[in-house]
Design brief:
Elements lengths: L2 H16 L11 H7 L4 H12 L3 H18 L8 H8 L4 H12 L3 H7 L4
C-alpha cells in the first residue's frame, strides 16, 4: 500500500468509525471493515499499523471507550447500567469494557462515573 492509497483507506476507516459508527457493532471484525472499504484485511491492518499508529482492535476499542465516557458524562444516562452503556458502545461483555477502559483511561468505568458524578 503506497501513501496515497493509505491516506484514502485511513479516510475511509475514519468515516466508517465516526459517521457510520460501525464500532458499536459488537461482532465487528477486521474482515468486515475491509469489505466495507473494498480492501483486504491485510491492507487495512497494514495501513492502521504503519500510518494509523495502532492495531484494528486498539482503534475500535478506543472509539468504544470514548463512547462509554460520553455516555457516562451525559446526565440522561445516569439511570443506565454500566453494562448497558458498554453494550450500546459495542462491547460484547462487561469484562471487555472494563479491560479496555482500564487500559486507555487508567481507571474503571465505575471510577470514572463516580469521579464525574453530578450532585
Amino acid at each position: 500500500v503506497d501513501e496515497s492509497q493509505a491516506a484514502a483507506l485511513l479516510a475511509g476507516i475514519e468515516h466508517a468509525l465516526a459517521h457510520d459508527r460501525i464500532f458499536t457493532r459488537p461482532d465487528l471484525t477486521l474482515a468486515q471493515l475491509a469489505t466495507t472499504l473494498n480492501a483486504t484485511p491485510h491492507q487495512i491492518s497494514q495501513v492502521l499499523n504503519r500510518f494509523g499508529g495502532a492495531s484494528f482492535h486498539d482503534i475500535v476499542n478506543r472509539r468504544r471507550v470514548e463512547e462509554v465516557k460520553a455516555r457516562l458524562l451525559d446526565p440522561d444516562s445516569r439511570r443506565l447500567t454500566l453494562e448497558g452503556i458498554g453494550a450500546a458502545a459495542g462491547f460484547g461483555s462487561r469484562s471487555a469494557m472494563y479491560a479496555a477502559f482500564q487500559r486507555f483511561e487508567g481507571k474503571t468505568p465505575a471510577a470514572f462515573r463516580s469521579q464525574h458524578a453530578q450532585p
